[in-house]
Amino acid sequence: MMTGMTNNPSATGFFGDFGGRFIPPELEAIMEEIKTEFHREIKDPEFLKELEFYQKNYIGRPSEFYCAKKLSEQLGGAKIYLKREDMNHTGSHKLNNVLGQALLAKRLGKKRIIAETGAGQHGVATATACALFDMECVVYMGEEDTRRQALNVFRMKLLGAKVVAVTSGTRTLKDAVDVALADLIANYKDTYYMLGSAVGPDPYPEMVRYFQSCIGKETKQQCLEAEGRLPDYVMACVGGGSNAIGMFAPFFYDESVKMIGIEPAGRGLDTQDHAATLTLGTPGILHGFKCKVIQDENGEPLPVYSVSAGLDYPGVGPEHCYYQAIGRAEYDSATDDEAINAFLTLSRVEGIIPAIESSHAVAGALKLAPTLDKDKIIVVCLSGRGDKDVAEIADILSRKGIE
Ligand SMILES: *Cc1c(COP(=O)(O)O)cnc(C)c1O
After folding, report:
1. Which end of the chain has the lower number of beta carbons within 10 A, N or C?
2. Domain containing 375 — which CATH number?
3. Which of 159, 191, 208 is the endpoint of a domain?
4. 126 Cβ below 6 A of ligand 1
């Protein structure tokens, strides 16, 4: 990386060549309204006080910074720390972003919240915040995902949300986003769109990064306290890229800290069944912003696949595209099998059952740690817990004849 580089977006929301706003004219005004309000609120001590109150008392921040000693010893290389976002209320990093945006929506006077969800984690987090703040909640979810994550559908209903199964396209996350955007265009006057990752038109990527940056900021402080220095590597799984950017962005100017994002390689990068957008995608426009996209020659997004419902998105956050372009972060991938192996390993060795999404980041660390000296430090963002995945994993193992 060249010195003097910045990770602040341009006035029009570009991170280098990526990001921006490619939306129907009727959405321009609403995006501007959100952007103006966002920049006003994050300078308002009252807003920040309220945000901090809920982060601490409701989410349970700061999350633990745990040294996975047994795992590190077993691998015989670098020391591995886990940033325990799985310990947050609702079981993942998602609520960090949702609570921030919900407070913003409240200040904008919006009473109706809509959201898309893949694995159901963002839907559950949104339904949770809507219950807390007395807002109407509609969650769009691909029909295929409602099947894979039936328990999360029930959770959302318990919390008072309406869940709409989306039956168009591949019936997964991408289709849910399409339908949610159509709802927003029809109802934007009283409706706030709660976007679940660091994607979408400006100002969402910047906003989601802001609300997720608690991950990296805490990590920095906790690592300094535990080790007296910064980590050598920070790692995170990359779907849309929100947990990863929350971990990475606060380290942007600390050039000694290497950043590695792990994408879902599904059944392999040499098959069509993956969602490794940064690794194999090409620049394009998706859902109102410019990023790397898995697409055909006409710019139509192609079906993507991962064992994890939360990672199978054909695009990725613009800030990651920028970090990759300037060489500030590296992006590698892990296959379904590698992720499942990491899921089993962390459960067995540390007594922590990780989300199958987070297992991709763990898989990256399992590969990297043994190649490094014992005085190196790797921090893995454990973005969520695996309770939601145990049934699916049990299924997969029994199909493979493993007990
Ligand atoms: C949603 C989710 C992800 C993927 O989303 P990002 O925006 O890439 O962070 C990763 N891990 C968990 C546990 C999730 O719920």
Report:
1. C
2. 3.40.50.1100
3. 208
4. no
